[in-house]
Design brief:
The chain is of the alpha/beta class and 403 residues long. It contains 17 helices and twelve strands.
Length: 403
């Protein structure tokens, strides 16, 4: 079976969806699941970034003229570029995997990943244009009859309810965490932390786009409720893109930054992330809404305690290996932060159980389960219009997960 995966999310700077595309494609090639997977890369062969180095290993890198690729990304024609690229592959592949909601340009058998339904459930957290584009892409994918993959049972349930799809047409396939995300040696930890003037076990980490859905307003409010001496000892450090709709957040963050109690690192090199996770006292990740919560999983794999949101998909990832809070209750978050700062025994326990919990999520398992969805979507039983009944909850699966 030849499968073409959409590689548009691999465009730098790479976010969590890009990580999903990269790791899934690599794992499909390595897992021995009889799937010939190519990633339709949308970056140029000469890109010096570390991501491009990995792309060369998974295929698809260097298939686009460098100058034309740059033009596509620097202007507003990326959707047209993507559609043209997909159409070129229709005669060479038996199935297309729309890795980021979108199937434009493809008319044959397809699988599509809906990472979350935030643009439907919480449109106020996104720019209007983003809501319009993503929602239209989802409607088109559903109308084309593609089988839908979600990263969590929570999102699977939302997709079934919102689109009225039969249960056998939607499958939850959890994401994984790479081997690179583990606690580094003390020497390696020191190298990275010294680069950012951070002390081991001496800061609180926040990760993700600096935007409303990530609930950074509550993080900042809870952090400000801590004593001045605690904030002096444990600055709040943010890793991730600048985001959107965050003028009020930025004003609060700037005031804390002036006091030396808040640091914005922006995007960091991929090989530095494990050390930044491992060096933190804990990760504050109380999002209003997540489709999965990859930063929480990566942090646990690095031995970092996680504060996540109760009632969201992040709860599926953390289980009992972290602290769960009501994302709408700042006092609950203040209490969780205080416990992490004051209770060394609790921190030690969460480091151990979080690391153990993270080993339940692998990219190999994600690839094997995804390959089974591919096979069923192409089978006489499943066809193009039906989902993987043998893999979903109604056919004995665990809450809609592949088994």
């Amino acid at each position: 079976m030849r499968v073409l995966l959409d590689g548009l999310p691999l465009a730098p700077p790479m976010t969590g969806i890009g990580r999903y595309v990269l790791e899934l494609t690599k794992a499909l090639k390595a897992c021995g699941c009889s799937v010939e997977a190519d990633c339709l890369a949308h970056v140029s062969a000469g890109d010096p970034s570390s991501v491009q180095g990995e792309l060369s290993a998974v295929g698809g890198g260097g298939r686009r003229p460098r100058r034309l690729a740059k033009l596509a990304f620097r202007t507003g024609i990326r959707p047209l570029w993507r559609g043209w690229s997909v159409r070129r592959g229709r005669h060479s592949y038996t199935l297309f995997h729309g890795t980021n909601y979108d199937l434009r340009g493809w008319d044959g058998p397809a699988v599509v990943t809906f990472h979350d339904l935030s643009t439907h459930r919480f449109p106020q957290y996104h720019p209007e244009a983003r809501v319009r584009v993503i929602n239209q892409a989802m409607e088109t994918a559903v109308a084309k009859g593609a089988h839908v993959i979600t990263p969590s049972a929570k999102v699977r349930s939302e997709v079934l309810d919102h689109f009225g799809l039969p249960a056998e047409r939607v499958t939850a396939v959890p994401l994984g965490v790479g081997e690179a995300f583990s606690r580094p040696s003390e020497a390696a930890l020191e190298v990275v932390l010294s680069r950012y003037d951070l002390l081991p076990n001496g800061y609180i980490l926040a990760a993700g786009s600096f935007e409303p859905r990530k609930n950074f307003g509550s993080v900042l409010s809870a952090y400000q409720a801590l004593s001045y001496s605690v904030r002096e000892r444990y600055p709040l450090v943010h890793v991730g893109p600048s985001g959107w709709l965050n003028d009020d957040l930025a004003a609060v963050a700037s005031r804390l930054e002036e006091l030396g109690q808040f640091r914005r690192l922006g995007f960091v090199e991929e090989n530095e992330l494990p050390a930044l996770y491992a060096g933190a006292r804990g990760l504050a990740f109380p999002s209003h809404y997540e489709g999965f919560g990859l930063p929480a999983l990566e942090a646990m794999a690095c031995g970092t305690p996680v504060i996540g949101s109760r009632g969201t998909a992040v709860e599926e990832v953390i289980g009992e290996a972290g602290l769960l809070v009501d994302p709408n209750d700042v006092g609950d978050l203040v209490s969780a932060l205080s416990r992490l700062i004051e209770d060394d025994e609790l921190v030690s326990h969460l480091r151990d159980v979080g690391s153990e919990r993270s080993r339940e999520f692998t990219w190999e398992a994600c690839a094997l389960q995804t390959a089974e969805v591919y096979r069923f979507a192409l089978s006489d039983q499943g066809g193009f219009w039906y989902g993987c009944a043998s893999l979903c909850g109604q056919a004995g699966g665990r809450d809609g997960y592949c088994e």
